[in-house]
Amino acid sequence: MPLAALIFDFDGLILDTETAEVEAWRPEFEAHGAPFPEEYFLWAVGRGAEQITKRTIDLLQEAVPELSNLAEIERRANRRRIDIIDSRSARPGIVELIAEAHGVVPLAVASSSRHGWVDTHLGRLGLWNYFETIVCADDVARAKPFPDLYLEALVRLGVSASASFALEDSANGITAAREAGLNVIAFPNDLTKHLNLSHATHEWAGDRAPSLAEIRALLESAGQ
Question: Cα dihedral sign for 105, 46, 13, 140?
């Protein structure tokens, strides 16, 4: 069966915004003598914002109740996060894969973030025009780990899930793609490599994203 489509996650997969969040907030917790809530970050990664009931500043306030300059701390951490993200390029091998696959198989993005964020950074990276469709949290009722984003991407592309691949870095994203019937390649980043991603159909061990030929070989090895 020929490869029908590739659908890419955005945060953490195309652009590593997720370790940037940790790098931005860890100094604030350390400066105030609070333990860093890494387990919470790992739980939240890949989820839609509507499912995350606490902000990071709320976790810091719970750890250090006497803090009074919360707005200043949050502004400083957010500015640090944006500066880190704006300085980063796409993850290794991602641009090459997208350029290689463009015009050969349909490409899409399925992201739990909103269009304002995703479209802006895809444009900055020079990748926006490579995708037939970009599906974001604005477009569906439920973001990941629910399958809505991937189901919408499949409908827009008009392709079969069983012959298509999602590329994901997080457990929540993998769950969403698998529930939509997709094959999934797990390509974790420095944060999500600590998660159990074994429910992906394939775990990519390399430090670069797979090539189009390597993805096709995975499809063939599965007997599809």
Answer: positive
